[in-house]
Amino acid sequence: MKKIALITGATSGLGKAIALTLAKEGYYVIITGRRKGKLEELEQEIEIKYESKVLSLCFDVRDYSQVEKAFATLPEDWKKIDVLVNNAGLAVGLDPIFSGEVDDWERMIDTNIKGLLYVTRTVSPIMVERKSGHIINIGSIAGKGVYPNGAVYCATKYAVDALSQGMRMDMLPYGIRVTQICPGAVETEFSLVRFKGDKKRADQVYVGFENLVAEDIANAVLFAVSQPKHVDIQDMLVMPTAQASGSLFHKE
Ligand code: NDP
Ligand code: 8X3
Known about the structure:
Layout: E1 4-7, H1 13-24, E2 28-33, H2 36-49, E3 54-58, H3 64-72, E4 83-86, H4 102-130, E5 134-138, H5 151-171, E6 177-183, H6 190-194, H7 199-204, H8 214-225, E7 235-238
Parallel strand pairs: 1-2, 1-4, 2-3, 4-5, 5-6, 6-7
Helix pairs in contact: 1-8, 3-4, 4-5
């Protein structure tokens, strides 16, 4: 059996690029997300392009019972996950605290914090039992510095930063590596989701500078998982050259 990677949020953006990159590298991949059709498309793409095996699990990371049930359907060999990429996440809205939508806050907190916890709680006990594994958490520049109107999204990514540190401490006796990868602006469906389908506003985010692309982050994941066992890349901040902080861009 080859190494197995489970990637959450593989129906789009970073997760999809990470799944393709790891499959190309020879990993067997478990792709997850809520959009069944997108999972099926990616499953086919991986099977056609690479000598890899792929399984897909369709579930919502916000629902712990869905996470547990989906994981339970995996064949026993596939439950021995070598690399877990906690990538599923989103920003919803860009508003000041005094007028932000409470429902937007719930979605971000439930997905980015609780979803990451639910998946980790489900997958990691077998890693601990096997004394082997690598957890990659996708954080953000938003978890390294707050920007105006983004307080709640930023808080969820600060939480990912704290959880990455805590996981590393808890996993220490078991030889399990924990890596946080924090991207700056990457053009994906991220802004379309943040602006609730307003494509014009979403596209505007990436005008006037060269943003990252999903493959840049997939390469960072590949770098982290390709290190020898005694090396843990703990934290990577990967930014466009034209971006210095969550809110400071050099736009032409
Ligand atoms: P996309 O919107 O392109 O992809 C998000 C993925 O998350 C989709 O596959 C989506 O799948 C999945 N997802 C969202 N909510 C849920 C849920 N409740 N249950 C299961 N899956 C879910 O965005 P990105 O690829 O850009 O985002 C990936 C990660 O990268 C996020 O954690 C984001 O915060 C982070 N990030 C992104 C940056 C950027 O500039 N793009 C920068 C820094 C960090 P589906 O809809 O099928 O459920
Ligand atoms: C996504 C990047 O800068 O829009 O995490 O918050 S940013």
